[in-house]
Design brief:
It is built from four helices and five strands; from the N terminus they run ααβββαββα. It has 143 residues and is an alpha+beta fold. The chain has one domain: HIT family, subunit A, CATH 3.30.428.10. A hairpin with a 3-residue loop joins strand 1 and strand 2. It is globular. The model has no long low-confidence stretch (mean pLDDT 93).
Length: 143
Amino acid sequence: MNADTADNCIFCKIALKKIDARIIDENENAIAFLDAFPLTLGHTLVITKKHYAKLQETKLDEVIDFFSLVHKIIPSIEKGTGVQSTLIAIHNGKDAGQDIPHLHVHIVPRKPGDGGSAIHSMFNSKHRLGDEEMNSLLENIKE
């Protein structure tokens, strides 16, 4: 990461331990900490230690460490908050709702009646495509 990025990105500052965070765990390439503005009790963020804006920018060994940390701490978060479920979310770019352009995963403990909904509730319209359109889309993605 360049000096300008490290100076201007709050997640880079946390990764470099230039600012305090309530760290749950970390490994060589990722760090997990409680969100300072939680959606629910125990809302946790996992970030890459190096600055990447989007998931596809990471190197394979770093993304493996990143998701290994997510995988490792989920049981502790669920047990520690007394829930049976967690929402795992990545906003992969500005248009997807990413507020801080540094790759991060939200782990949000969920329980009945917490006010949250399924991902499908985020969108007003549902795309109904015919077979031809679906096949064309599939080919475009596979190219």
